[in-house]
Structures are given as structure tokens and as C-alpha cells.
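Internal ticket - ligand job 240, adenosine-5'-triphosphate:
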Amino acid sequence: MAIVKVDNLSVQFAAKGGIKTAVAGASFALEQGETFSLIGASGCGKSTILRVLAGLQRDWKGDVELMGNRITAGKRFQGALRREVQMVFQDPYASLHPNHTIWRTLAEPLKIHGESEIEARVAEALEQVGLPSEAAKRYPHQLSGGQRQRVAIARALLLRPKILLLDEPTSALDMSVQAEILNLLNRLKQLHGMTYLLVSHDADVIAHMSDRAAFMANGVIERSFDRAALVNGEHRMAHA
Ligand SMILES: Nc1ncnc2c1ncn2[C@@H]1O[C@H](COP(=O)(O)OP(=O)(O)OP(=O)(O)O)[C@@H](O)[C@H]1O
Ligand SMILES: [Mg+2]
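stdout (C-alpha cells):
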């Protein structure tokens, strides 16, 4: 069963001199447990699609189903969906509050969702991403880029999501740290049985991570690649 179904999704923005169509009737589906990636040139609409699926972009048209629930444009996500879909952003520095300790960053979402045993859950979250428990006392600027992205991943996992939306999760990191974070993401996916929707500019990252990928241009999906095509490197040509 498809865990994410996107049919004919369109997103438009009011822009100078008229309307900007960011997503122009994109359709795709994710099977449970797979990593599906979106590739394509800057501005083709990848992040906008992820923002719709995260409930951050509420103005859109089309049919979208998450975990069998049809979502409605203009509305906040209801019930379990609010925890089941989480997003990790490209720039962990921008996505973490600079004046909040890591403890606060991780404890707050748990409190908002009425969870108990906050202390144990924060400790578990840090441990899962390979950070020492004393990292909780620090502020984002007191961590390395890779550690900050580990915190962002820990925060995304706190509510035990089923679907993780990863928007260029390692492109702000240097190569060796990038590999560590990608391997961490793969381990966590196995451990928790998650499904990933990944955006990356990097053809190696796509080949390493994905079961399938789709190439976008001008707000639509132009081509899809199965695992064999990715192993063959066919997506590299499309991306060039
Ligand atoms: N809030 C917004 N208001 C106006 N235009 C927007 C807004 N968000 C995105 N756009 C425009 O929509 C188009 C798609 O943007 P999007 O961020 O989805 O691209 P992308 O594929 O993620 O690009 P990149 O690879 O550079 O991250 C771009 O032309 C962008 O300028
Ligand atoms: Mg983007």
C-alpha cells in the first residue's frame, strides 16, 4: 500500500508581475519502507512538495494522501498525522533556535504533544543519533555542523514518525560527516521502519540512499528511476 500518494499536486505563489507556479501537477507515490528521492535543478519545486507533505505549505491543489488519510488544503494536520510526518531541513543552523539549549529544543515538542518521561525520551533521542547526553546543555553554536544535524534528526525522530521528509539533509556538511549522517539515517530507518522522501542535488547521495528516484523539471516529474537505473547511474545524465 502506498504510504504517500500525490496526485496532480499544484502550488502557486503570488509573485512580482503575476503568479509563479512552483509545482505544476506532480504525481508520485511512496511505498511503505522505501527511500524515494526527488532530484532536479534549483527552483523546480522539490522543497515546495516536501513543505506540502509536512503541512507547512497549506495553499495547494490536487489529491494528497498520507498514511491512508486524505489531507485537505488550507487546514492543519489533524491527530496522529501531526507526529507521523516530520521534516529535516538543509541548514541545521537555521532550523535550530539559536537561544535555546538542545535540551529545550528536544523537550518542547514532547511537552507540546503531552508526552511523559521527557528526560528519558530526550536522553534516548540523543543516544540514537550518537550524541553524548551532555550535549543537551549546549546551544547550537557550541556544536559542530554534523552535531547540529544530528540534533535536527533527533528532534524529527522524537515523535516517532512513520514518514521522514529529508530536504538536502547533508549538503551543508563536509564529505566525511555527510557519509556518517547518511549511514545514521539508514540505520534509523531500519530500526524504526520509516519511509523516506529525500531531496538531494548529489547524484552519489541519491544512488547510495534511494530505492527509487524521480527527476523533476518545472514543477512536474519528468522521469523515474528504479533501483537498477540508479545503480547504472542513469540519474546522473538526467541531472546534468
Ligand atoms: N514562499 C514562496 N513565495 C514565492 N515563491 C516561492 C516561494 N517558495 C518557493 N517559491 C518559488 O517556487 C519555485 C520552487 O521553489 P522550491 O524551493 O520548491 O525549489 P527547489 O526545487 O527546492 O530548489 P532548490 O534545489 O534550490 O532548493 C522557485 O521558483 C521559488 O522561487
Ligand atoms: Mg529546495
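Auto-summary: Residues 46-47, 167 surround magnesium ion (ligand 2) (CB under 6 Å). The longest strand covers residues 2-15.
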